[in-house]
Amino acid sequence: MGFDIDSYRASFLGGARQYLFYYRPLFPGGIGGSTEKATYLVRSTQVPETTSEEIITNWQGFDFKFAGKPTYSDWTVTFNVDKDAEILRIFNSWARVIHDPTTNTYAEPSLYFMDQQLELLGLDGTPITKYKLVGAWPKSVGSASIDYSSSDVLQFDVNFTYLYHVTDNVTYGKNQSFS
Questions:
Q1: Which of 11, 21, 77, 179 is within CB 3.0–4.6 Å of 45 for a Cys-Cys bond?
Q2: pLDDT tens digits, residue range 46-83?
Q3: Into which CATH architecture does domain 15-169 fall?
């Protein structure tokens, strides 16, 4: 049976789109800021990455490979800066909660860990896959480049680290939540 372009086209159904995603940043208590407003300042991100360590065992002269410890790569979100730079202040406040350089104190993780959720959306706008990043916190709040010769909207990156993530493969067309 040969390759048939019509069968491929009928099976593929257009694919997921890069621009169809939803992320609403959640902030720890005491930080303040509107998560609703922050949603509209998200410019881009990527699907979280998982890598499995490779364990090689020799068995009867052959290398036999096993999956080892999973590693969850840092997750980066790019934000547009609003007219009052509130989003920048919120993330700098969150970073200050983690470690306050003026008092040289570190907060308990339970005070700054915050689960984050990213949703990939189908062509009709309903979630098709959800990623929950457990125990996330901003590892770095990036710089925002300012330049007299540019009229672009100011933007900056937040690099989150987290404990692990779970995926909820949603039945297409139904909005479900993690339990």
A1: 77
A2: 999 999 999 999 988 899 998 999 999 999 999 999 99
A3: Roll (2.30)
